Amino acid sequence: MTSNNPPARANPAVVIVGGGFAGLQAAKALSGEPLDVILLDRNNYHLFQPLLYQVATAGLGPEDISYPLRAILRGYGNVAFRMADVCGVDLAGRRVLTDGGAISYDYLLLAVGAETSFFGLESVAANAVGLKNLADALTLRNHILRMFELASREQDPAIRRELLTFVVAGGGATGVESAGGLAELVHLVLAKDYPELDFAEVSLILLEGGDRLLLALPASLAAYAARALRKMRVEIRFRSRVAGFDSRTITLADGAAIAARTIVWAAGVKAAALIATLGVPADRLGRAIVAETLQLPGHPEVFVAGDAACREQDGGPLPMIAPVAVQQAILAAANIAALAAGRQPAALVYKDPGTLATIGRSTAVAAIGRWRFAGFTAWLLWLVIHLIRLVGFRNRFIVTINWAWDYFFYERAIRLILRI
Amino acid sequence: MTSNNPPARANPAVVIVGGGFAGLQAAKALSGEPLDVILLDRNNYHLFQPLLYQVATAGLGPEDISYPLRAILRGYGNVAFRMADVCGVDLAGRRVLTDGGAISYDYLLLAVGAETSFFGLESVAANAVGLKNLADALTLRNHILRMFELASREQDPAIRRELLTFVVAGGGATGVESAGGLAELVHLVLAKDYPELDFAEVSLILLEGGDRLLLALPASLAAYAARALRKMRVEIRFRSRVAGFDSRTITLADGAAIAARTIVWAAGVKAAALIATLGVPADRLGRAIVAETLQLPGHPEVFVAGDAACREQDGGPLPMIAPVAVQQAILAAANIAALAAGRQPAALVYKDPGTLATIGRSTAVAAIGRWRFAGFTAWLLWLVIHLIRLVGFRNRFIVTINWAWDYFFYERAIRLILRI
Prior knowledge:
The structure is a homodimer of 420-residue chains.
Chain A: E1 13-17, H1 21-29, E2 36-41, E3 45-47, H2 52-56, E4 66-68, H3 69-73, E5 79-83, E6 86-90, E7 95-98, E8 101-104, E9 107-110, E10 114-116, H4 122-127, H5 134-152, H6 157-163, E11 165-169, H7 173-193, E12 203-207, H8 219-231, E13 234-237, E14 242-245, E15 249-252, E16 257-259, E17 262-265, E18 269-271, E19 288-289, E20 295-296, E21 299-304, E22 309-310, E23 312-313, E24 316-317, H9 322-340, E25 355-360, E26 363-368, E27 371-374, H10 376-389, H11 393-409
Parallel strand pairs in A: 1-2, 1-9, 2-5, 9-21, 11-12, 11-17, 12-13, 19-22
Antiparallel strand pairs in A: 3-4, 6-7, 7-8, 10-18, 14-15, 15-16, 20-21, 23-24, 25-26, 26-27
Helix pairs in contact in A: 1-9, 5-6
């Protein structure tokens, strides 16, 4: 492994690992500071994860929710990008170890995010598909559409039903949005594409281990979401957990079985594996436990922000969601700039901007402060917020067109089975 | 293998193999006829192949130039689609053999198209990438962008030059369009993305075996194209043929060598492999030699149209281009309908609508009848014709936006390295 560090610099070196919400926000916040910042990511693009389920359900293309990191960072003179797989951190030597050599830092921000957790269920890990990256979303899109093609030429009704049974595991926002997106794809679009199929043979099942959906939202909104999904012909089973999946039969923890070929796994995430290699205290989701300044205990030059950080507030850990990642990143960047300038770092005070989840056409739920919205207003709010947050004006424009198109024509233009 | 045929029907069964320009045109032409038509394709989408090089050079996404075949065929009551890999034809038993069972026909149209030909050069086949399908285009896009990422962290100038040398083999329309698209991606877009690279180290080389480009166009237009490419910093080498490529060194037929990691292979195509399995007379490109009615000699119920058919006119075989495919498909469909109605099939008279090739921004060449265009007029013509021919209003709309965007902002929004 060779060292790829540029020659001696005047400014302290900041390395940010991860170009997601947290890493990108921190890079932007550090632009213009007297610091030499390098942002590392294994991909060359920033991914707008909240819309991944729309790629999986053929509503958007992968290009619509991704934006090249180099293009985003063009304007920031002191921020460079390098595409690299980070395989470890030499905390004592202050070096990040990558597939392209080691990179030294004076300050490090780990914004490595989360990955799918199958809770050690190996058969599920082998046969279900998560929803954490573009490969997941395209694999799901290909798989779902392929099931319909196979069903359309299948003579055996039992096998046809198995092909046409789609299970979403997990009743959080990702599970609810995926189940809703899938229901619209199936009953509004594919029903027109497959006149040879009887769509009464299709089963869409949402499994939730607890006894309500959307724990992050008030119970009344969760009940609204459940009613809306049922209207869209999604069967919801509470107190149901997946225990195994051999690609044709799903076994539940209570011993029941479902003949199905598809599990969309929205039941669990954990911090990216890099955190476990650091040898620092972590919570049960693998998140590094950080100080209120987001510093790693014993390593004041190392910060962790976003899904990979565990920080408690108001008696519980902050959730693994974009607003937490963004607020933590802004604080971590400010604290790095403060340390470099010889000032004291500040403590995190997370301000909850509210929670939103969309279910389908004109149907969403939102809790913002004391306000509760359900239906069209919440959906419009969801739409506008997601469009504003998307990086790149072109992406916003194309996504608006795609959504308008699908809304008015009951279409999903992107339903291609793409082999690569 | 089981038979998947529906129960006895009143109408003759027509099977069309291939959903490209020829197959899709024939399916549309047969709609409304007293025939039961099944269109088979290994993919679930129609691909607009003329714009594949734009996917490879990050100007368009794969979703923009593809359209679901089932969506296209929705309006045609007597035309069904089935996604299937066709592995053979039982000409005597009048059955098409697929991965989903055999399908019987009364009339068969083989519109199976073409695939990349490496002329038996195994090392080139293993390391170069053709441009015949979406997987090719995405592989190329990923590869080209990855070379820049690797170069940006490479210290050895010799290796850096090797990473930054891109060779396009073949000076026909695909080669010229790919070289032009690549030059614009590199010098207009990536030059802004990689401030750490010296773009004088980039080499773009177009290799042509003969001594001029664009044989399908008049010499004056070919010379214009060569001048335009050189202005875009593409080096053109005539009388140069690739003999081998071990992924780091390209060996030419005259013994010269080029240190490079990339060959975009636009030097040859041949008929799809299915034709060779039929045991019928074929030309040196593997195309089935057909009668003037496009019937297979000895099998009047079997037609071949498009790139997989060899039909001579005016002393030479018709070229493997979209206008030939479309005109042949219209005739083949009319002849199938005629035979089914007890009438005589008609003979093909191909009318050349002219030839167009684009080189880059505001730069194209066109020969239509006695007219010759070069520059902005030809480019506008190319733009309008390609937009009109794209299937799906949404695709036309999105492609227009992408092109306008790239034109005004010197951008390529889709430059993502996408792993799946």
